[in-house]
Write a structure and sequence with these properties.
The structure holds two protein chains of two kinds.
Chain A: H1 5-22, H2 25-37, E1 45-47, H3 49-55, E2 59-63, H4 75-88, E3 92-97, H5 101-113, E4 116-122, H6 123-128, H7 130-138, E5 142-146, H8 153-167, E6 171-173, H9 184-207, E7 213-217, H10 222-228, E8 238-246, E9 262-266, E10 269-273, H11 298-306, E11 310-315, H12 316-330, H13 336-348, E12 357-361, H14 370-385
Parallel strand pairs in A: 2-12, 3-4, 3-6, 4-5, 7-8, 7-12, 8-11
Antiparallel strand pairs in A: 1-2, 9-10
Helix pairs in contact in A: 2-4, 3-12, 4-5, 4-9, 5-7, 9-10, 12-13
Chain B: H1 7-18, E1 22-28, H2 34-47, E2 51-55, H3 66-77, H4 82-92, E3 100-104, H5 106-112, H6 114-124, E4 128-131, H7 136-139, E5 153-154, E6 156-158, H8 167-171, E7 178-181, H9 197-205, E8 212-215, H10 221-228, E9 233-236, H11 238-247, H12 253-269
Parallel strand pairs in B: 1-2, 1-9, 2-3, 3-4, 4-5, 6-7, 7-8, 8-9
Helix pairs in contact in B: 2-4, 2-12, 4-6, 10-12, 11-12
The chains are: A alpha/beta, B alpha/beta.
């Protein structure tokens, strides 16, 4: 817990309450019911036949978190945490958001449970994810623009933490990724484990065997940890997290913490992050707002150290190619975050045998990215045509 | 390490003998420039400040309000580094013996290396350190610091949300002074004072003999005087930082800081 003293009591209280909720059948029952009836779980495990055929290697399955209510995996955690906030007797919800998916999920559950809701979002991200800003406002949330620094996810987290320090008695901070101070990384992971638990059962039913490879994009790393965690004991299952390579691994132009990053402490947690020789946090860049962040979830740093999970990166260009490929071949428009995982599979699947199995966490849908992707894809080709 | 008494302890002992309260000023090192900070420190000395809290700027100061955020940003843009801030303290020590407490966040220190940082800070003439995002639960794990932390005093924070049951363990190893954060929130000026200051300070004083300083949100001589009646020391930060921001790089920074801070010091000394 690397946080100001003002937050220590709240984090301790959250930890204690969560430990109770974790074993409370009523709590778990309500969560399961809402995940089913309100969010649309379980999500399908879909065999991407045409993509598999085209790549000519491993059989590729998509865990369809993009089909969940609000369009991404984020609602698993938002729902779990608002039930915790209710138990804690809090009246007000705050959250940070990068791509806006966590903000939309939080605004959604806040509306569902009648909480006041404030979402902090970098001004740059508000521009590139304008659709989600509108959705949050429709849902009754106040979206506050953060203009400090590079005005993306990291600054939004700073501002949310400042709000929390100020309003901690009546406010719960629904942190949106497997980040921040304990107990958040654990809570967020646990609420997303349902992804891997379902995927494991579904693949065993369908193929009567475990997959060979799990792939997920990693910003903070919540969708990845949700898919990976229930498979950790299955030694035959390889896992790859895909970070945002931005314009390539040049200082300030990417967000791949395991490429050129180092251990440090940021926003409550000790983990791998991008910082200069003085410990000042470096600028980051990614086409995807959700991966554009200087630190990675601490549990990912741990599994990398253990050698249990490998971490690679995809550049903006590779992710955009993945975005187009899945759209055209499978009729599924993925989020730009998810497209990083697709990009890796486009390279990796052909190298694998046809009887091997890959599961990709299709963590979100690309509706929010339509404008930005069009600008990248058609904007550039238009210029080429000139 | 050092057998000579720490400057912070000496300062509080002398004040106690005179029946006076301490005035602590916060400024950010390197804001607006390193040379500018030299002028600022001279102005603080002219005004009779007892202890200087020197911010070591960090890119992501999540416990700071916008005034101090902007100061850190100006300092970093003007080229402040950890090494240059240590050099700045060495230069201050050629003309000033006012106790200096570093006020910063964990990552710059972690990156520098804890033990090396402490040794270099002590050698430069720093007297204490306050790490905003390092609660004592985490600090005690830091075995690297054995043997050096007596010379660089560990300033502990207590907040209004700290449970009464937690205070004794928080202040058990307090050195120099205990910093009571007088309100829930980030640093910055406020028009009203919290009404729980007196009772919280009493609670802390029942658990430790170390002096108690109160800060966060105090900006006027009237507020400073009121707080001085309840605590051993009063901290003013953002109001001075704002003045520095408004003064810019030109003009008589020493004179304007001195003139602004003098009434604050006088208010505390009037108690």
């Amino acid at each position: 817990m690397f946080v100001p003293e003002t937050l220590m009591a709240a984090l301790t209280e959250l930890d204690l309450e969560y430990q109770k909720a974790r074993v409370d059948e009523e709590f778990q029952g309500e969560l399961a019911r809402l995940l089913r009836e309100y969010c649309g779980r379980e999500t399908p495990l879909y065999l991407a036949e045409r993509l598999t055929e085209k790549l000519g290697g491993a059989r590729i399955y998509l865990k369809r978190e993009d089909l969940l209510h609000t369009g991404a995996h984020k609602i698993n955690n938002a729902l779990g945490q608002i039930l915790l906030a209710k138990r804690l007797g809090k009246k007000r919800i705050i959250a940070e958001t990068g791509a806006g998916q966590h903000g939309v999920a939080t605004a959604t559950v806040a509306a569902r449970f009648g909480f006041e809701c404030v979402i902090y979002m970098g001004a740059v991200d508000m521009k590139r994810q304008a659709l989600n800003v509108a959705r949050m406002r429709f849902l009754g949330a106040e979206v506050r623009a953060v203009t400090a620094g590079q005005a993306t996810l990291k600054e939004a987290v700073n501002e949310a933490m400042r709000d929390w320090v100020t309003n901690v008695r009546d406010t719960h901070y629904i942190l949106g990724s497997a980040l921040g101070s304990h107990p958040f990384p654990m809570i967020v992971r646990d609420f997303h484990r349902v992804i891997g638990v379902e995927a494991r059962r579904q693949i065993l039913e369908r193929e009567e065997r475990l997959p060979d490879l799990l792939v997920a994009c990693v910003g903070g790393g919540s969708n990845a940890i949700g898919l990976f965690h229930p498979f950790l004991q299955d030694e035959s299952v390889k896992m790859v997290g895909v970070e945002a390579g931005g314009d390539g691994i040049v200082q300030g132009r990417h967000a791949a913490r395991f490429q050129g990053g180092k251990l440090g402490v940021l926003q409550g947690t000790k983990t791998f992050l991008l910082a200069d020789s003085d410990g000042q946090i470096e600028l980051t860049h990614s086409v995807s707002a959700g991966l554009d962040y200087a630190a990675v979830g601490p549990e990912h740093a741990y599994y990398r150290e253990l050698g249990r999970v490998d971490y690679v990166y995809a550049t903006d260009g590779e992710a955009l190619a993945g975005f187009q490929e899945l759209s055209r071949v499978e009729g599924i428009i993925p989020a730009l975050e998810t497209s990083h995982a697709i990009a890796y599979v486009l390279k990796q699947a052909p190298k694998m045998k046809t009887d091997e199995i890959i599961i990709i966490n299709c963590s979100g849908r690309g509706d929010k990215d339509v404008e930005q992707a069009a600008e990248y894809i058609y904007g550039k080709s238009d210029r080429l045509e000139e | 390490m050092s057998t000579t008494q720490n400057r912070i302890e000496t300062t509080f002992e002398n004040l106690k003998a005179d029946g006076k309260k301490a005035f602590i000023a916060y400024v950010c090192a390197g804001d607006p420039t390193m040379d500018g900070t030299i002028e600022v420190v001279k102005g603080l000395d002219d005004a009779g400040v007892d202890i200087i809290e020197l911010g070591l700027p960090f890119s992501d100061p999540l416990a700071d309000g916008v005034v101090n955020q902007m100061a850190a940003q100006r300092a970093l843009e003007a080229g402040a580094t950890t090494a240059k801030v240590l050099e700045l303290v060495r230069e201050i020590r050629t003309f000033s013996s006012t106790p200096i407490v570093f006020f910063t966040y964990l990552n710059p220190i972690y990156t520098y290396g804890f033990r090396q940082f402490y040794l270099d800070a002590i050698a430069a003439g720093v007297d204490g350190i306050l790490l905003l995002d390092l609660p004592p639960e985490e600090a005690v794990l830091n075995e690297e610091l054995c043997g050096v932390s007596e010379s660089l005093q560990q300033i502990r924070l207590v907040s209004p949300t700290t449970p009464a049951s937690r205070i004794p363990s928080l202040v058990a190893q307090a050195q120099g002074f205990v910093y009571y954060v007088s309100r829930e929130g980030v640093t910055g000026e406020q028009t009203t004072l919290s009404d729980t200051i007196a009772s919280q300070v009493e609670l802390i004083k029942s658990a430790t003999k170390v002096p108690v300083a109160v800060g966060f949100g105090i900006s006027t001589p009237e507020q400073a005087r009121t707080v001085a009646t309840m605590a051993d020391a009063v901290v003013v930060g953002s109001a001075i930082v704002r003045l520095i921001a408004d003064s810019g790089t030109g003009g008589d920074l020493r004179g304007s800081v001195g003139a602004f801070v003098k009434p604050l010091v006088d208010a505390v000394k009037s108690v």
